[in-house]
C-alpha cells in the first residue's frame, strides 16, 4: 500500500506539494463593455457585477482595476441597434467607440496593457461576425431573414443560400484592428473565426510604421458554444437569425483546434487563445504542450461566470472556493493568462 495522505495533512503541507502556483493579479485580463454616453454604469442583467460603461466611468473603474494589480484589460464595444448596419461600419470608422476608449485609457494610464476585440457581431444589424452573401453577392438583412431567428441554421430557409462570407469580411476586420492600433491598443484580438484573419490583420498592421508593433492575440480555438449566452446579452451581439456553427468550431472536435492554432501561428499571431475554458481543459492542455513558446490565454466566458456565480447565490457552492478551483483548473491545464469577469473579485478575495 502506497500512502498519499501524508501530502495532505495540513494547509502548509498541501501548499508545499501543490503543482500549480497561485494565480497572480497580473495573470488576469479583465474584460469591459464600453458604450457611448456620459455617466453610464449599467449592470448587465445576466451577469451580476458586470457593467456597461461610458468612457468616463470606464476610466474610474480601470483605475480601481489597476490598483488591484490587474494591468491588462480587454475592450468590447456596444452600440444601439439603430446605429448598426449590414457591414458593421461603426466598428472601423475613425471615431469608433473602442478607439475612443483606448485613447482615454492610454492618456490616463499609459502603463496598462489594452486588448481590443476584433469582430463585427456587435456592430452588424444581423448580429453575425461577417458579411451576408447570397449566390456570391452581398445580401440585405431583410424581414424574411429577421424572422428566422430560431431556425438554428445560418442559411435560413431551404430556398435561400445565405452564407457568412469569409473573404469579403477580412478587409473590414483588418481595418477595425488598424483603427484600434492607431488609437494605441497594445493587442488586437480577432474573434470572428474567419479563415485567414490573422494574416489579413498582420499585413494591414505591418503596412504602417505607427501600427507594425501592435501585437495580435488570436482567438485561435474558439468553439461554437452555448456558454456565450450572457455575453450576447451584454454586447447586444446575438445573431439575428441562425447560428455561428458555420464559422466557429464544432465542440466535438479536438485535433482541429490544434490545427487552427498552428495556422494562426504561421500567419503571424503573437499569442493564442482557447475559448471557452472550463469545458475545454483538454484543448488548453494540448495547446500548452504543443506550443510552449506562444503565450496561451484561456477565456472563462460569460456562461461559466454566471453559472458558477448563480449556483453560489443559490447556496450550492461557496463562491470563493468554486472560483478558486475553476480558475486553478484552467491554470493547471496550461493557460498562462486568463480572461475572467471574476478577476477583480478573485484578487480582492486573496488580498
Protein described:
There is one protein chain. The chain has helices at 11-17, 55-67, 97-108, 143-146, 170-183, 197-206, 229-235, 255-267, 281-290, 302-313, 319-333, 343-350; strands at 28-35, 41-44, 47-53, 72-78, 113-118, 131-134, 137-138, 162-165, 187-190, 215-222, 271-275, 296-300, 337-340. It has 12 helices and 13 strands. The radius of gyration is 20 Å and the shape is globular. It is an alpha/beta fold and 351 residues long. The mean pLDDT is 93. A hairpin with a 2-residue loop joins strand 2 and strand 3. The strands form 2 sheets. It has an 8-stranded parallel barrel with strand order 1-4-5-9-10-11-12-13, surrounded by 8 helices. It has a 3-stranded antiparallel β-sheet with strand order 7-6-8, with no helix packed on it.
Q: What is the N-to-C succession of helices and strands?
A: HEEEHEHEEEHEHEHEHHEHEHHEH
Shape: globular
Given the structure, what is the number of helices? 12
Cα-based radius of gyration, to the nearest Å: 20 Å
- Give unreliable regions as ranges: none
Q: How much of the residues is beta strand, in percent?
A: 15-25%
Broad structural category: alpha/beta
Widest sheet: strand ordering: 1-4-5-9-10-11-12-13
State mean pLDDT (0 to 100 scale): 93
Distance between the termini: 40 Å
Beta strands, count: 13
Tell me the helix content.
Answer: 25-40%
| Biggest sheet character | 8 strands, parallel, barrel
- Quaternary structure of the protein: single chain
Amino acid at each position: 500500500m502506497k500512502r498519499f495522505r501524508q501530502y495532505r495533512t495540513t494547509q502548509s503541507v498541501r501548499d508545499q506539494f501543490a503543482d500549480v502556483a497561485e494565480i497572480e493579479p497580473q495573470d488576469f485580463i479583465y474584460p469591459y463593455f464600453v458604450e457611448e454616453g456620459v455617466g453610464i454604469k449599467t449592470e448587465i442583467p445576466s451577469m451580476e457585477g458586470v457593467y456597461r460603461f461610458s468612457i468616463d466611468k470606464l476610466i474610474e473603474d480601470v483605475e480601481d482595476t489597476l490598483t488591484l494589480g490587474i494591468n491588462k484589460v480587454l475592450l468590447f464595444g456596444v452600440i444601439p441597434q439603430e446605429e448598426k448596419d449590414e457591414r458593421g461600419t461603426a466598428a472601423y470608422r475613425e471615431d469608433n467607440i473602442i478607439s475612443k476608449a483606448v485613447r482615454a485609457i492610454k492618456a490616463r494610464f499609459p502603463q496598462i496593457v489594452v486588448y481590443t476585440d476584433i469582430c463585427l457581431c456587435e456592430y452588424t444589424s444581423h448580429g453575425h461576425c461577417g458579411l451576408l452573401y447570397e449566390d456570391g453577392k452581398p445580401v440585405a438583412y431583410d424581414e424574411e431573414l429577421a424572422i428566422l431567428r430560431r431556425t438554428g441554421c445560418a442559411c435560413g430557409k431551404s430556398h435561400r443560400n445565405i452564407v457568412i462570407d469569409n473573404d469579403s469580411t477580412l478587409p473590414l476586420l483588418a481595418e477595425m484592428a488598424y483603427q484600434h492600433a492607431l488609437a494605441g491598443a497594445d493587442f488586437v484580438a480577432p474573434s470572428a473565426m474567419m479563415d485567414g484573419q490573422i494574416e489579413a490583420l498582420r499585413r494591414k498592421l505591418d503596412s504602417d510604421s505607427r501600427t507594425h508593433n501592435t501585437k495580435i492575440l488570436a482567438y485561435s480555438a474558439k468553439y461554437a458554444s452555448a456558454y456565450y449566452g450572457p455575453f450576447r446579452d451584454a454586447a447586444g451581439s446575438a445573431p439575428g437569425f441562425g447560428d455561428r456553427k458555420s464559422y466557429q468550431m464544432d465542440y466535438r472536435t479536438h485535433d482541429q483546434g490544434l490545427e487552427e492554432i498552428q495556422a494562426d501561428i504561421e500567419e503571424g499571431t503573437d499569442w493564442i487563445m482557447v475559448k471557452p475554458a472550463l469545458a475545454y481543459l483538454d484543448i488548453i492542455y494540448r495547446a500548452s504542450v504543443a506550443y510552449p513558446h506562444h503565450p496561451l490565454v484561456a477565456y472563462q466566458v460569460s456562461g461559466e461566470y454566471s453559472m458558477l456565480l448563480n449556483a453560489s447565490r443559490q447556496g450550492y457552492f461557496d463562491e470563493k472556493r468554486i472560483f478558486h478551483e475553476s480558475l486553478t483548473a484552467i491554470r493547471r491545464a496550461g493557460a498562462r493568462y486568463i480572461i475572467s469577469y471574476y478577476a477583480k473579485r478573485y484578487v480582492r478575495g486573496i488580498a
